[in-house]
Write a structure and sequence with these properties.
Low-confidence stretches: 1-31, 372-397, 559-566
Helix content: 25-40%
Number of helices: 15
Strand order of the largest sheet: 8-9-20-21-22-19-25
Length: 566
């Protein structure tokens, strides 16, 4: 009897704890809540004590390293450096841990639709007319992306000149902490079989390795659909040497220009209340400012700090620290095109679990279910709408309040069945088309002007056409039609379903469904894997140091000529 009573007490206790956890999650949505025992070093920027002048010989806090941007690269960098050095991380966004919009797979699209000032996703539109997002949260892109994980190709490692042994030793450190093996859902299984039927072979099973053919890759979503971002890697840091400030928006790097070569001495940042602070580097040979603000934020920060084309800086009255015409040049965005696959089923929400890797430099992936959730169809997200392309195709000058309300009404009036199904995604690896990034003002909170010039290089367009041909074969496969219980569609009808979705601000042509080239150009979207802007050899050295100044490095994918699509 005592044993039975003890079990009942335990069950009641478990039930009570579960209720408390549910209550905590629901009440903390959107608030800054995190485990202070696991992350005691995370604080709001306003808690920082600083002096007002860089001329002071004594500073309250000096750091061996100041990392600007606590994103996918910044978090593991901070965790490893803090084992031996004092590290300050300055992140402009908040924490992801208690925000259900980014913590759960089912809310993936809602995070992208959130355009509020404190959203973890900051939307921007490139001059090409393609809608995109920048991460604005601790953990960076790993907090708002589709969560797919794969190792880079050995060919890529060799081409960029990295130490292959060191790279291979580093993978398990990440994989053990935040990567999981997915359990493919029926939609993804039908996609896998359709890829193989379309000739994307062999099937390589579950593997992190980059192999030609079809494979099941890793995911940062666990079996409960909860996301594990790079922010969790901070728990491996040394709390005695690591400080992470959230809502700390760095405005510029501070340089000492009294010597022959400009030398970074610290940074200026503002806190969540708009108050200004300065953080300084220790007076040590190895001390550095490490820019890890993403492919948009890092070149933007160099420009705001006075490193870039002299004429452009002078137009904005930015004091020139170093004239370098190559900052912001060579921006690359990996283009993606999608085709809609209708289904008669209520599809479970899935993100990228299976990928087809072709030798032509085209990757084929699939997602399902995000277009049909009650929340996504009925919630008012203004003109942002992930399930039909994130933004209406109205030109900017026509986006009046009346037009926005009309768009919302059309969205709500769409029948639920119109959104059933999923998408097959085709994306280009290592695009040849290039654009640039320029400031249009000196406000760090504003997006710079960015162009990617999608498909301006004919080889990119050719690969898109080849990829769309594979994607339509996949959609027409009997494996998919048997699963979706929808009759086989013609290529023209498949393309027409996709053209009708408002995926960007590019004007549509009447021959979109007749010409695959035109379809690629007019329905291009992004996979968010931007890079360039601070290329090795023109802006940074092979070891990532900014050329022409001391004590600044760029630690981001933006300095790469190529970028692995992981």
């Amino acid at each position: 009897m005592a044993l039975v009573n003890g079990i009942l007490v335990i069950k009641k206790l478990i039930f009570f704890v579960a209720l408390c956890l549910i209550s905590l999650l629901s009440s903390s949505q959107g608030k800054e809540v995190y485990d202070e025992f696991r992350y005691p070093f995370i604080k709001k920027a306003s808690s920082f004590a600083s002096v007002s002048s860089s001329s002071s010989s004594v500073h309250i806090n000096d750091y061996d390293y100041i990392i600007v941007g606590g994103g996918t690269a910044g978090c593991p960098l901070a965790a490893t450096l803090s084992q031996n050095f004092t590290v300050l991380v300055l992140e402009r966004g908040g924490v992801p841990f208690a925000n259900s919009n980014v913590s759960f797979l089912q809310n993936f699209h809602i995070a992208l639709e959130d355009i509020s000032p404190k959203s973890p996703s900051q939307p921007f539109v490139s001059s090409d007319g393609v809608i995109s997002s920048r991460a604005r949260v601790l953990g960076g892109g790993s907090v708002i992306n589709a969560g797919f994980y794969t190792r880079a190709s050995p060919r890529f490692i060799k081409r960029v000149g990295w130490d292959a042994k060191l790279v291979n030793e580093s993978y398990p450190w990440i994989e053990k902490q935040i990567v999981h093996e997915p359990q493919p859902e029926p939609y993804q299984i039908a996609f896998r079989d359709s890829l193989l039927a379309a000739g994307v072979a062999p099937f390589n099973g579950f593997t992190y390795d980059h192999l030609y053919g079809t494979k099941v890759g890793g995911t940062i979503f666990d079996r409960f659909g909860r996301r594990h971002s790079s922010a969790e890697l901070l728990s491996s840091g040394n709390p005695q040497k690591l400080t992470v400030l959230i809502y700390a928006t760095v405005q510029k790097i501070v340089f000492d220009t009294s010597g022959k070569t400009p030398k970074a001495v610290g940074v200026t940042f503002k806190d969540e209340n708009g108050n200004q602070h300065q953080a300084f580097l220790a007076d040590k040979p190895r001390s550095e400012v490490l820019l890890s603000s993403g492919a948009i934020g890092s070149p933007q920060m160099l420009l705001l700090s006075g490193i870039g084309p002299k004429a452009d800086l002078e137009k904005l009255n930015i004091p020139v620290v170093l004239n370098n015409e190559f900052v912001g040049k060579g921006m690359v965005g990996n283009p993606m095109n999608a085709i809609f696959v209708p289904s008669s089923r209520e599809e479970k929400q899935t993100l990228i679990q299976i990928v087809g890797i072709t030798k032509m430099g085209v990757y084929i992936e699939a997602s399902s279910g995000f277009s049909q959730s009650k929340d996504s169809i009925e919630c008012n997200h203004g003109i942002m709408s992930a399930e039909i392309g994130q933004l209406s195709t109205l030109p900017p000058k026509q986006r009046t309040p009346e037009a926005i309300q009309a768009f919302i009404k059309r969205k709500r009036d769409l029948p639920h069945e119109a959104f059933k199904g999923g998408f097959i995604l085709e994306k280009i690896a290592n695009p040849m088309s290039k654009g640039d990034l320029r400031l249009h003002n000196t406000n760090v909170d504003d997006n710079p002007n960015v162009s990617f010039n999608y498909f301006s290089h004919p080889y990119d367009l050719k690969r898109c056409v080849d990829g769309i041909r594979i994607a339509t074969k996949v959609a027409q496969s009997e494996h998919f039609t048997n699963y979706t219980q929808v009759d086989k569609q013609t290529v023209e009808k498949i393309l027409n379903l996709s053209v009708k979705a408002n995926v960007n601000l590019i004007p549509k042509n009447i021959n979109d469904t007749k010409s695959l080239e035109q379809f690629c150009k007019d329905t291009v979207i992004t996979i968010w894997h931007y890079h360039g802007g601070c290329h090795v050899g023109t802006v940074v050295s092979p070891d990532n140091k900014v050329l022409g100044v001391d004590r600044v490095r760029v630690v981001d994918p933006l300095e790469l000529i190529l970028r692995p699509l992981s």
